[in-house]
Amino acid sequence: MVIEPEKISVGFIGLGVMGKSMAGHVLKAGYEVHVYTRTKKTAEELVSSGAVWEESVTALSTKSRIIITMVGYPSDVEAVYFGEDGILAHAEKGTLVVDMTTSSPDLAVKIHEKASRLGIDALDAPVSGGDLGARNATLSIMAGGEKAAFDKALPLFEIMGKNIVLQGKPGAGQHTKMANQIAIAAGMVAVCESIAYAKKAGLDPETVLKSIGAGAAASWSLNNLGARMIAGNFEPGFYVKHFIKDMKIAVESSKRLGLQTPGLDLALSLYEKLARTGHGDKGTQALFKMFE
Amino acid sequence: MVIEPEKISVGFIGLGVMGKSMAGHVLKAGYEVHVYTRTKKTAEELVSSGAVWEESVTALSTKSRIIITMVGYPSDVEAVYFGEDGILAHAEKGTLVVDMTTSSPDLAVKIHEKASRLGIDALDAPVSGGDLGARNATLSIMAGGEKAAFDKALPLFEIMGKNIVLQGKPGAGQHTKMANQIAIAAGMVAVCESIAYAKKAGLDPETVLKSIGAGAAASWSLNNLGARMIAGNFEPGFYVKHFIKDMKIAVESSKRLGLQTPGLDLALSLYEKLARTGHGDKGTQALFKMFE
């Protein structure tokens, strides 16, 4: 069977740094792409490339066979799916909805339950890899939901990412993303402490990285964000404020699972302090400022 | 100039898991190797391969042009260098002493000062890479001391390791090793929390590693020790009790430098709790037991 992507209409809700790149790739692959985002101006580039602007979530929902959401906070996800003018109130039976926002696992389960009752397929499929991963279509995509729905979304996932894994039932994608953020959280504290120690001890931190960046202390954070800390480059790859959002979801979810997370708690409290001192729009490596 | 290694007598003090492999490589390279360690039996294999057993630190010190120490705790280092029958009281002028034990940076400076007054060259050169790195001669060696002394030791370092870096003045090797251990410490907490979260959330943690082991959460600890945690394998690669020793040196050294290290402090307190419950002889990945 010849795949005719232009026959499948894909709706994108949320065109931030990530969503814009992701929608662009799908458009370039030949799909009919409908877009909606809060600030219409953001969509201009995509629309001039052939995307169809929709005036509301409702309008988009009635016209798309697959709807991808990439919004900000769980409260935004909730509004976009459960609002009176939201997706679930207006999408047709047989539609597939995919929330790629990093959001609450419980909310993902709730969306899936409601969608199921309406004959709508639902996946949670948050990503990691940041704006660079979105731009280069190298995102890691961690999905939760039924296998059939995953298979239906897979051609789109393959356009947007590289490392695509169905992690399990509804919510499993979000849970995996939480495991990802938890592994990063206290790890960032470790990286900051290590580089701050090197500087205070009078070492040349770049030379230190040559010794410690390839062995048992090696991490993506140390080699990438550590190097930015040393260079005094605090520009956002991933925003402090967004990481705080993710860690809050992780803390809440951990509590509900009965898991103690002292490292995560410590990281969150340090990042919140950092945001209070006006660095919420910096990159996560700005945590280093708390140790200098 | 033809190098005649057999003309240079190298003394090894301390033949634990690490020291034994390291001395073995030097012996195999053709050097005349003198050995001393607390338990004579440990030296048998090396002696049967051609190493010369010495009955005391004193005897070894008078017969070796280069003396390498790989002992346990800073107190052992202190005794071996500063004791009445120790290295500095008996080594000849022009000898090079190299402490490869992970030990206190201040002690390294003290050894260097005393050695200098005696006309003895001194380096601190702790390693990372563990028993496997020692066995395969792939250790990372981070050195502190004068360039001339480093150049003199380099042919031996190249026999024992791969990633060999002169980090700076005396103590800089130990400081770099501390930066390495600090980067690992809170990072291990993060890895444990992440895998414990995945399990509690009902995910398959091995599948989770497929999603998170290659992106921004990636670390040597996650991909190697995390995998052992999942498999329930707590056998020692690196002992809990030794990591505690290192972290205590790091905490003390950080305090002296005026550096706050909440992540390191947290990791140390969790590891001490783990040791108190009888797991000091397990591998560092056994920290996972505190989160299960």
Chain-wise SSE layout:
2 copies of one chain form a homodimer.
Chain A (H helix, E strand, L loop, with lengths): L8 E5 L3 H12 L3 E5 L7 H5 L3 E2 L3 H7 L2 E4 L4 H9 L4 H4 L5 E4 L5 H13 L3 E4 L2 E2 L1 H6 L3 E6 L2 H14 E8 L3 H29 L4 H8 L7 H12 L8 H18 L4 H18 L13
Parallel strand pairs in A: 1-2, 1-4, 2-3, 4-5, 5-6, 8-9
Antiparallel strand pairs in A: 7-8
Helix pairs in contact in A: 9-11, 9-12, 9-13, 12-13
Strand order of the largest sheet of chain A: 3-2-1-4-5-6
Tally of DSSP helical segments of chain A: 13
Mean pLDDT of chain A: 96
Strand content of chain A: 5-15%
Oligomer: homodimer
- Which stretches of chain A are low in confidence, meaning pLDDT under 50 for 5 or more residues running? none
- Overall helicity of chain A: 40-55%
CATH architecture of the largest domain in chain A: 3-Layer(aba) Sandwich
According to CATH, what is the topology of the largest domain in chain A? Answer: Rossmann fold
Q: How many structural domains are formed by the residues of chain A?
A: 2
- CATH C-level label of the largest domain in chain A: Alpha Beta
Task: Report on the biggest sheet of chain A.
Answer: 6 strands, parallel
Radius of gyration of chain A: 20 Å
> What's the shape of chain A?
globular
Intertermini distance of chain A: 60 Å
Structural class of chain A: alpha/beta
The helix/strand order of chain A is EHEHEHEHHEHEEHEHEHHHHH
The two chains with the largest interface, and their residue counts, are: A-B, 70 and 69 residues
